[in-house]
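Handout, tutorial session.
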Amino acid sequence: MSLALPLALCAAVHALALMMWFGALSLRRILELGQQSPGRSTLLLAGALAMVSGLLWPWLQTGVVMDDARAAIDPALVAQMLTQTSFGRTWLVRQVFVLAALVLSLVPLLSTGRAVYFLVACALASIGLLGHAAGVTGASGTVQRLTLALHLLAAGAWLGALPLLWAGAGRLAAYDLAVVLRRFSRYGVALVSIVVASGVLSAWYRLGGIDPLLRSNYGNILLVKVALVALMGLAALNNRNRLTPALQRPDLDAQAAARRGLRGSIAVETVLGLAVVFAAAALGGAEAPR
């Protein structure tokens, strides 16, 4: 039995949980939403999911590396993976970040504080140290890891904010919702730009040209990911240019229609974002051309 698929799913869930956590905290801190900020239950759920999936990861990783599903339930082999490999040592440090952030989140006054935000950001950004870029040495490796970290943080801040915006679209007054969406839109433009630029740079490092993009499994998965991100961008543009302005019309029917449209559009954008994360996890398990 191959554990490659369960490993990819576990990595995707772990990344997704950290993105939701980081995105929720980012939305609160940058937009200063006040009473519309994420509740502790949202943050704790994301933290718990990150913790559990993180704990499962090295067991599955051991089974895949040993090419034996039985190795995934052998504590001695998993302990060797954690103490004798760069993956294991990196995982241990990252899991300490997640645990510390989760413990601090249990304290009401600290759950959205700077310490939690910093720890979650470190845990999310350091996912890049467990992938292809981790094995590249020298200046090139450093640039690749920093680029991937920036990509993860920007993607997390974008994707993690969407569920909260969807919830806000259902309960905020039309004017307040329009204000929040306009503020997020300015913030979102920068995030999308960073995601695209860092993604292009990472792809260039991994592929080195057009031919590998078209002729390798890695390149094909990357094309799917790019298409999904493009669709997310189109949904965001629709929200910004058509639906958000409609919220400020005096016609109550137009406002209600815009609200329904926004909830549907944000939901679609969120589903596409989930697909992007799983495509990224598949990339992590695919053999890069270089």
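The second record follows below. Compare its token runs with those of the first.
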Amino acid sequence: MEEHFALFHEEQRFTQWWVWLIILVGIAPAWYIWWKQVVLREASGSDPTSEWTAWIVWLGAGVLLPVFLASMRLVTQVRHDGIYLRFIPFHWRWVRIEPERIKGVQARTYNPLLEYGGWGIRYGARGKAYTISGNRGVELEFANGRTLLIGSQRAEELASVIRGLLT
């Protein structure tokens, strides 16, 4: 049971105001169409499929997409037997990184857009990244030369715990 004890635990979500502004602007047309077609009954012509289309667009883009984005979170744990990552809802199980694979650990500031093309599960020139917000993280260098960046609001603490795991 000791291997499930977390030496470090962090959960991050998309909390940037501008991300949610983009989402709200993006879903506004779905809500507008649904409101006009279904609530106000201002259907264009007498075609009943336009109301069904409004329902489908509203449910998909206006409701399910924001719920999906709101459910996203990056969970990082360091346990005695490795580093565990879950990018919910994409990972159904933990991604485990064995300590013996790690050659180097460095807390660093990075540019999410330039280095990885944004936030999420990303691939860039420097390697793979799991990021959800901010510009701080811990870069792991593996024995095979590849790197993995784990975004963290507590990058120095995460790096320190990982270094302790390696000794």
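Points raised in discussion: The longest helix spans residues 17-39.
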